[in-house]
Structures are given as C-alpha cells and as structure tokens.
Design brief:
Elements lengths: L2 H19 L2 E2 L4 E2 L34 E6 L14 H8 L12 E2 L6 E6 L7 H16 L4 E6 L5 H12 L2 E6 L19 H7 L3 E11 L10 H6 L2 E4 L9 H11 L3 E7 L21 H9 L5 E8 L10 H15 L5 E2 L3
Parallel strand pairs: 3-5, 3-6, 6-11, 7-8, 7-10, 8-9, 10-11
Antiparallel strand pairs: 1-2, 4-12
Helix pairs in contact: 2-9, 3-4, 4-5, 8-9
C-alpha cells in the first residue's frame, strides 16, 4: 500500500471516530460519547487540574445535561467565615470520586453529559450585587437546558439560584437538609444573608410551599416559634431528634409522595451533618444527622423530577483534614446519581 493510500485510510478511520463521538438521534436509539472522571490509572490522583471529579472543564453549559458550578461566597455568613474556599477544596477532595455508584447501580457518566463549568462570576464585596450576579449566571447556564449542581459558598446563594430556577421551571418543591431553617426575615436588619434564603425564596414565589420539607433542624433557637413561620406556609419540619437512631428510608417514602411529579430542588447544608463528621462549617450544631442518613435522604430522591441542587456551607479552614470537603464531594456525586436520565444497573 502506497503512502498516499495509507494517509487516505488513516483519514477514513479518524472521520469514523469523529462521527461515532457525535450524537446520533433516530427513532430507535441515540449514540453519545459522555464525559467521565479521569481514572487514577490514567493520571495519578494528586496530579492534574482540580476540576470537579476530574471531569472536563468548559466555559459554557452547551451540550451538557448537568453542570457543576462553584459559587465561592461567604459574605452572608453570620459566625465563622471561610466558605468562599469551599468550591476549591471540594473540587480538590473530589479527585477520588470514580465512575459508578456500586451500592445503587447508578451510572451517571454513562447516561448524561456532565462537566465542570468553573465558578460563577460575582462581586464578593457587595452581597446584593453578588446575588444578582448569581441569578444572571445561573439563568445563562440553564438557558441551554442544562441543570445545575452548585458548589458553595454560604447558603445565601440558594435564593438567587432559586430565582433562576423559577424562571425556567416555575415554583419548585424543596428538599432542604440543614441544622437551621434559614427563614429569618432579616439578620441585623439585612434581608439578604445565609439565614434568610428560604424566606426570600418563598416571598418571591420560588417555592411550592406545600411541597417543602426541612430535615435535620436542631440547636438552640431565639424563641420557641422559630419554626412556626415555615409550618404556617405548609413546610414539613423534621427536627434532628426525630431522626435519631433510625433509618430515614421510611421518611423519604413520605417525601416522594409529597413531591409527586413536580419539579424538585435539593439544597444540602453540610451543617445538617453532625460536626463530628463535618466540623468544617461556620455554624455547627451538635447531635445532627449521620453521613449514612444523608445518603438515605439523597438516594431517596431517586425517581423525582430533580431540576437542580446545591451543597453549601463547607468552610475548609475549620477542618484541616479535608474530610468535610470529602463528604461534600461524595454527597454531590450522590445528588448527580438521582438526576432524571441517569441509568441504573441491577446490583
């Protein structure tokens, strides 16, 4: 075979590989090449750029089903700061996340297109302006049909994200895991802070209040009425002591019935977990949920119409081991596994 013939043959092979990597849609089937975490056998885990789960990084959400997006904000914190470093540390610890969920059979990286789109741009020195920046950034990401998993950042970020979600999906059901209700009217007179996002979201019509559940609330309160506002709106409140010494799988059966087939957003504050497991956070409260219960909650969301989610309040300076961020990275993987479109194998 001549050199010219060899070159033509090589060109044909390359063309075929390119064609196979594109999306083909027909009446019977769809072929698609998906992004996946880089294996530790291809590049040592401490090496490389610290993207979320070692996925590819891209500047836009084009052609993505779900994207990870960092929101490095802590201007809304009331106690210990440091959550602006959360996205960076969670990405770093996520290098150990692999391809499939062996416990549930979930295969997100064989089912949906996922990438890290970096951090949303915002003015971290001006909290109201930062919230507008976040809303605009998430609106743009969602405009392509992509769903978002936000990596926080303090809990203030959830309000502007829910504003963007409302524009796309209307009022949503909410599965909120936290030590705190975050439904205050204001903090020191300021209406925007990490203790007010769900009051603001409800006021803005972002929530379907009859489909809101808050799990893990605990700690000392200002008054005995602190949870009454949410209950008056229709929120279901599940305090942490109601979860002690038990599986939360039965609770999640009730939550699935509550959420029905409407759009659902998951917001997970890492301080919902007991500080023995997750000390790296700004407002820790004792006697919280366990990581096992956290998995039961998230895995219990399978089958729901999940339209977005976030993991917030990781403050790396308060956990030098990195274990809080490692837990957060794993919880984000579990959230990814319950998005619509993810296929499951029998296990």
């Amino acid at each position: 075979m001549s050199r010219l013939q060899l070159l033509k043959k090589f060109a044909q092979v390359v063309t075929l590989q390119v064609q196979q990597s594109r999306t083909f849609q027909g009446s019977a089937q769809c072929f698609r090449k998906f992004n996946a975490p880089l294996s530790g056998n291809d590049l040592a885990r401490p090496a490389g750029i610290a993207s979320m789960m070692r996925l590819p990084v891209q500047e836009t959400s084009e052609d993505l089903d779900v994207c990870f997006v960092g929101v490095p904000l802590d201007a809304g914190t009331s106690n210990r700061s440091g959550t602006r470093f959360g996205p960076r540390q969670i990405r770093s610890e996520s290098c150990i996340i692999r391809h499939v969920n062996n416990a549930t059979g979930a295969q997100p990286f064989d089912s949906i297109q996922v990438a890290d789109v970096g951090d949303v741009w915002m003015n971290i020195y001006n909290l109201p302006e930062a919230c507008k920046n976040i809303k605009d950034g998430f609106t743009k990401l969602m405009s392509t049909g992509c769903k978002t998993l936000a990596v926080g950042g303090d809990h203030t970020i959830t309000w502007p994200i829910l504003q963007a979600v409302k524009e796309k999906h209307g009022p949503v059901g909410l599965i909120h895991v936290d030590a705190h209700a975050d439904t205050q009217e204001a903090m020191l007179g300021a209406p925007i802070a990490h203790g007010t996002p769900f009051k603001r979201a409800a006021d803005d019509g972002c929530l379907d209040c009859q489909r809101v559940v808050q799990i893990g609330l605990r700690g000392t309160c200002g008054t005995l009425q602190d949870y009454k506002w949410g209950e008056s709106k229709g929120f279901r409140i599940v305090q942490a002591h109601e979860c002690w010494h038990k599986s939360l799988a039965p609770l999640m059966e009730e939550v699935r019935e509550m959420m029905r087939d409407g759009p659902v957003y998951i917001s997970f504050d890492i301080d919902g977990i007991d500080p023995a497991f997750a000390p790296g956070t700004g407002t820790p409260e004792i006697a919280g949920l366990t990581p096992i219960q956290a998995l039961e909650i998230i895995r219990g969301c399978r089958g729901l119409n999940i339209v977005g989610g976030d993991l917030v309040e990781v403050s790396p300076p308060y956990d030098t081991t990195g274990n809080t961020a490692l837990l957060a990275a794993n919880l984000l993987f579990e959230m990814l596994c319950v998005f619509p479109g993810v296929k499951y194998a029998d296990v």
